[in-house]
Amino acid sequence: MTSAEAAQAAQRGAVLVLPVGAVEQHGPALPLGTDTIRAEAVVDRLVDALDELVVVGPTVPVGVSPHHLAFPGTMTLRPATFAAVLTDYVDSLARHGWRRVLVVTGHGGNNATLGVVAQDVLRDHPEVELAWAPVTPLAPDALGAMNRAEVTGHCGEAETAQMLHLAPDLVRSDRLAAGTTVPGQLDPFARLSRGAAHPAVALPYDRLSASGVLGDPTSATAEDGRAVVDEVVRRLADFVREWSTT
Amino acid sequence: MTSAEAAQAAQRGAVLVLPVGAVEQHGPALPLGTDTIRAEAVVDRLVDALDELVVVGPTVPVGVSPHHLAFPGTMTLRPATFAAVLTDYVDSLARHGWRRVLVVTGHGGNNATLGVVAQDVLRDHPEVELAWAPVTPLAPDALGAMNRAEVTGHCGEAETAQMLHLAPDLVRSDRLAAGTTVPGQLDPFARLSRGAAHPAVALPYDRLSASGVLGDPTSATAEDGRAVVDEVVRRLADFVREWSTT
Amino acid sequence: MTSAEAAQAAQRGAVLVLPVGAVEQHGPALPLGTDTIRAEAVVDRLVDALDELVVVGPTVPVGVSPHHLAFPGTMTLRPATFAAVLTDYVDSLARHGWRRVLVVTGHGGNNATLGVVAQDVLRDHPEVELAWAPVTPLAPDALGAMNRAEVTGHCGEAETAQMLHLAPDLVRSDRLAAGTTVPGQLDPFARLSRGAAHPAVALPYDRLSASGVLGDPTSATAEDGRAVVDEVVRRLADFVREWSTT
Amino acid sequence: MTSAEAAQAAQRGAVLVLPVGAVEQHGPALPLGTDTIRAEAVVDRLVDALDELVVVGPTVPVGVSPHHLAFPGTMTLRPATFAAVLTDYVDSLARHGWRRVLVVTGHGGNNATLGVVAQDVLRDHPEVELAWAPVTPLAPDALGAMNRAEVTGHCGEAETAQMLHLAPDLVRSDRLAAGTTVPGQLDPFARLSRGAAHPAVALPYDRLSASGVLGDPTSATAEDGRAVVDEVVRRLADFVREWSTT
Amino acid sequence: MTSAEAAQAAQRGAVLVLPVGAVEQHGPALPLGTDTIRAEAVVDRLVDALDELVVVGPTVPVGVSPHHLAFPGTMTLRPATFAAVLTDYVDSLARHGWRRVLVVTGHGGNNATLGVVAQDVLRDHPEVELAWAPVTPLAPDALGAMNRAEVTGHCGEAETAQMLHLAPDLVRSDRLAAGTTVPGQLDPFARLSRGAAHPAVALPYDRLSASGVLGDPTSATAEDGRAVVDEVVRRLADFVREWSTT
Amino acid sequence: MTSAEAAQAAQRGAVLVLPVGAVEQHGPALPLGTDTIRAEAVVDRLVDALDELVVVGPTVPVGVSPHHLAFPGTMTLRPATFAAVLTDYVDSLARHGWRRVLVVTGHGGNNATLGVVAQDVLRDHPEVELAWAPVTPLAPDALGAMNRAEVTGHCGEAETAQMLHLAPDLVRSDRLAAGTTVPGQLDPFARLSRGAAHPAVALPYDRLSASGVLGDPTSATAEDGRAVVDEVVRRLADFVREWSTT
User: What InterPro entries does the annotation carry (chains A, B, C, D, E, F) (predicted)?
Assistant: First the structure.
């Protein structure tokens, strides 16, 4: 996309979509960039579905991952840095007339900072509408149809399934192995943070799982992954289409 | 509490509980400090229930409320300031041996920043366990039993009920009036943010409701409020009791 | 106070009064929150005296107390955090038309940062007039009438007297004991900082007094405290009344 | 690359290579991401040349481009944000034992901030050796062999040639057109900044060229581009090989 | 002073003296750098008096002067910048073994920030003793002996007298003229801030005096100036001598 | 210069010149302030040459010198602090109508931060033209005529020659001694950073030279120094004259 094309896209009211992810441990079988890969793939498919309604902006490949720092390969931005990157992006975009920005995050650890960014944008750029969406939680139907362990999450069934669908070459299938799958394997304080209607807690991942894996990724299939991705893309596309008419 | 008593409490492993709230518009009938009042009241009852297991720390009375700034009386900290206050608190507490901190927030607008604070604490004070909890969402059972409008929330049935129970003198009952109660009254982008499994958005409250009220507070009763508060306190007390044994 | 009432108060030119204090060691007999308690009490009496001329804003309960960190229970904001809280307050207030803000600080350790805040407000909100006042130093007459040790100050005669008047239940009178009362008990560098027309120094309190007390609080009476508080309130009220006519 | 593989690479002393670029106007014919594309391509070829001596880290796709903000599509990080991203990267890498980091920047506007980052790393991570390199200036021989206008640079012969070699599909060859090619076309202050041994100045690009182009890209060939890229990669590879023996 | 000589001075426990001043309007007759000139002159004389007990560090020539910004020629650091300069100085000095630092400020507008710096140093460099002193207020005896207007201060009798003694060539004596000399000439809010035991306020200087002058400098003599400087130097020298024995 | 004179100078479009330097080790023979002394001396001569076209602003005497911190006497600002000082200066100057600012730095370690400052000024004060210049590199002809070692630089022939010309009393000529003069004396990584068209690196000076000296200052003469200074001043004067006509 050239400068002139960007000007036209902004003028026609396109939604600027920013994929954000993480570089962090993803167990023995998945690549460090799993979250970024999934976010970018979802955004690519969203573009296929929506064409000129959206434009893809630059990825933020490293996210907020202090809870994984005990594991090699993990890189993290401080939340303040991650927020500064996004607010600098919005500053630039607002200057050129963009009014709708959608952030798609492949990494749940970015959610809190994205919430903060949205509050700062609300104040400093009231003319910009910012929406942000995680990937996996946008597929409740597909998730419901999968077979998942009682404890599941990071590097688990859903994440592995998505990678088997989106980037099978990057999955070391022979190293897939169940991690923490039942509450009893968690340390006591970690157990406390499970269940509905309780206080939230932040925990380093080495207190959750020795291998960094929550759930049993060996049961994941590429088909499951396709179902998740399809549902996520469909929901995002519906959202953007409606947004574009407001 | 004197200096020596604080030393003893830290040493016996007590949980330090910090009430945080907001000073922001609460419609025509509720006081600006509604969220702080509810947080402090819940914490007071928690102390009654748990005695020496907890110690109450200083309140943060102003929270993150940029979305209410269009309404007079609203005060807000920038998210970075709110985070700095809490990390400074944790710095001080950690230095004196406190290892468990629970933040109780009466204001949902603080949630994102609390999530960020937790990530920073994880990195800079790995020896401290931080948990944080909203008030109203900790009472799913009591909420389920109440009669609430399709659109509800800020200054709505649940919040008003709590105030009728906790601080009836501060409620101008004659000014209670339904605000936005059905999606059709929201502006189109605001409508988009409703429902499950969709992107999150941040919106200024004047796009949600002309009076700043979501829901119909005229139906709220002090009894409902008591049920909400009781459930919140019970869940928090259970959490702290278990925590204290880890 | 509701949103609408706040709008009216701002419009009629009321002075917004902010009590700020500290959570820090106050020797064996006084509570950690002594400075906040005194600031809030003075402000309450000021409201009684001035009625609609003033409105009370949210307290900043924790102040700048790095010099007390050696003593358990002390919490401190970094000066930059304390300043950010107050400038965020002023930002919010200025937006809604407040033009006069008075900060009443129960803690001398906040003075320097308040001076800095005032300079930043001067630059960033020239439309706002900010005044700030300590508590005890506003009662020179009452202090002159009291019997005080040669070295006196934190937790000493004047502070204890105020607490005996304002919150006698929170004073452990049986633990009141003289702290450092003569210069010879100070460490040599601390001694240097005494007297008029000399350089200023900042010292950790454990170099000033083993118990954290300067002066002999055993001689303090509630009557003395009443005289101090009355004089402080009278001077503040005079100031606000005159201010309100400008 | 998985967590375990990252651990091995750090342990064997591999150089971590970070491509950084820009999203900014590149005239009517080149894409906004030209600098990032070239940096990533160079790094890819470096990996081909060096194999296990290097590992590629996450790209920083948006750089420091305030001088291009007058042109649509330009995004910029503030220098402080760009610096924070890189120091956060180094913080994470240092924690896991990386000792050599090479930043390859496709965008000259990042140079000053990279210099600052290096000074901060020197102080805060003396155990890490940081090197940083631009792309085009590392090919003095190939540049000398090209036919370039008297005024040349951004979007000019060398940059266009690289893109014709690396990503010909992204070059709108029919829109290539000469920009500012002789000093007389610059505004007077911009002219002042040319030549050796003079003060440096920073100028917005609209004072340098109406189209955002310096030089005449119509004369650029893919062959020239290959020569530039080959020389850059060769010099970087030599550097890394020597470094790896120290 | 060379690197080796600095090492020796630090080792023998010398006091590092930092002159700080301001660049701000000083009325029609005094130079913008008046405060810096006075601070440096006092420090020079202090060195003459104390020889090896002190070493002069680099001047901070621009201070905190937002209240003078309405007048041309005024430059100001934000308080946070001024504080950062001094804490960076102390960081460097502490690293090389300096344990005593004395800041001499010719500008009262720096006092609040110096107080904040001292609190930060107390926390981050407990091994360093920091003292700071204004110039004019260290000469109460000489001031008492001078003839000064009821309202006096900036560019007034005392400041002008010092300049007539220290740098007579820089004083445009023919332009000396009385500024604000009685309270009635102040604006009403400015008047409020006068007198003992009242709240402090910060005011822009154009509300205090049209010419930027407080007091009547026409009555100032070089002799008065000498008396002020001599007393200041004597008091500082006594302080440093005692300090050096602790 | 008084306030009124500053107003006139700004109005007539004078260039504001800011000397910046460093306080850092300069080997056994040169003073810590060598870079500041040279910058100020060059600026003084520039004023002599240009008269009313320029006005000298306040010096920044301490620069960015983390690479010299291993040597006693070195003081450094963090790059962010150094940048803040200069942007605060520009903020103040812009407010009073200054449109041209020239920074002359005697210390190469400031260059990167000056580049960053220029980018921030470009964005925040587009009405101000900022130029910045090092000292020694502005004399390529004089340098070419000098006899210099293969490795040369800090405290070497050129710097010493300038000091012999500008401030001979401050040079301990008897302690002048060759430092690192050939690449073989550098540590291997330091060697890597030499030569054209290679990546840049930042290194602590103790890895470059045990005495902190690069080159052989014993061969320097005051005459060489005069030639360097004359050329620098001539080039700067030409630049300013041309600038003043734009």
Answer: Creatininase-like_sf, Creatininase/forma_Hydrolase
